[in-house]
Write a structure and sequence with these properties.
The protein has 334 residues and is α/β, with parallel strands linked by helices. 39% of the residues lie in helices and 13% in strands. It starts with a strand and ends in an 18-residue tail after the last helix.
Length: 334
């Protein structure tokens, strides 16, 4: 393999202390490198104008590395749970990832029984590679794939952010509202703290802060991170978010995620209040670019044909209605 380099590069990287010797000595060192077949003059580059002349550029000869030294290690040293097929065909990649593969192999040799006990991603990552983010943010996923292993093999689970919620009452059954954005969560909580128990005509017992798409992860541990009253199967759960493709998409994904366990309804009164208030505005804000527009009719099936047409007209115009269009002064209205 050849690499094009300058005369100065050779002086700086291959001729140690060349800047402190005479030009004649520099010349002799270049000739020595040529005779050793470590560099080849690039005649088209021209000479440096000195006497005796040296060419301005050279081909640096980089010897091909023999990666076959790793074949025996792959075949006879690694733990049998690790597939060696990929690395036998990509020995250069094995050299680059070897340290991590050996750490995984050593862990399996000494501590494989620990995989019987489920651990979090970061805990297992540190246990194997001594880096807690190796699996979640670094090259851990790639290493596992190249070793023919998946996350299930490591018996790990993802942690979620604790679910933030405000319990106005623990009486059951009750209506619970999941809110996409923080401002609306705080405003509705303030409204309830003032002694009210209804929001836009609906009696509400608990508010849940969804944190946008974060609710999809948080709801996976819903049964583990909420109080017993919230798990009452007679409760009704509502969702309220921005009126845009992303907000509707979060609702649909959440509904599909927990179908069979919980039924989640759109907070129709809140969405319709958004529509009414938006009619008073001269212009709505533009929707964020690159939103996934792949939504079904699930969300719209809870609204009348007239309201559905109004909402679709907003979306198809490239506009959206943020749920922050409503504030604490609007929650009394019906």
């Amino acid at each position: 393999m050849r690499k094009r380099v300058s005369l100065d590069w050779i002086f700086d990287n291959m001729c140690r202390s060349s800047r402190d010797i005479s030009y004649e000595q520099q010349y002799q060192r270049i000739l020595a490198l040529i005779s050793e077949s470590r560099i080849v003059p690039l005649k088209a580059s021209g000479t440096n104008g000195k006497h005796p002349a040296l060419y301005r550029e050279y081909w640096l000869i980089v010897p091909e590395r023999d990666y076959r030294i790793y074949e025996e290690e792959l075949k006879y040293r690694l733990h049998p749970s690790i597939s060696i097929d990929y690395y036998l065909s990509h020995l250069k990649n094995y050299e680059q990832e070897r340290a991590w593969v050996l750490m995984l192999s050593e862990y399996l040799e000494r501590n494989k029984e620990r995989l019987d006990e489920q651990e979090s991603v970061n805990e297992r990552s540190f246990e194997i590679w001594h880096r807690e983010k190796f699996l979640s943010r670094e090259q851990g996923r790639r290493i596992l794939k190249h070793c023919g292993l998946d996350w299930e093999f490591l018996n790990i689970y993802r942690t979620t952010e604790p679910l933030a919620y405000y319990s106005h009452t623990r009486h059951v059954p009750q209506n619970m509202v999941i809110l996409e954005n923080k401002d609306t969560f705080y405003s509705m909580r303030r409204h309830l703290l003032k002694g009210n128990d209804r929001i836009l005509g609906m009696k509400v017992g608990t508010l849940v802060y969804g944190a946008g798409k974060g609710i999809l992860r948080s709801f996976l541990d819903f049964d583990l991170c909420v109080e017993p009253y919230m798990r009452n199967q007679e409760n009704r759960i509502y969702y309220f978010g921005d009126l845009d493709y992303e907000g509707i998409g979060i609702y649909e994904k959440l509904t599909n995620l927990i179908s069979g366990e919980w039924k989640i309804l759109p907070f129709t009164e809140a969405y319709e209040a958004m529509l009414r208030k938006s009619c008073l505005m001269e212009e709505l804000p533009g929707m964020k670019e690159q939103q996934n527009r792949n939504i079904s009719e699930m969300f719209f099936s809870y609204f009348s044909d007239v309201k559905t047409e109004e909402m679709k007209r907003v979306l198809e115009s490239g506009k959206y209605i943020p749920q922050e269009i409503l504030n604490i002064a609007d929650f009394e209205s019906v």
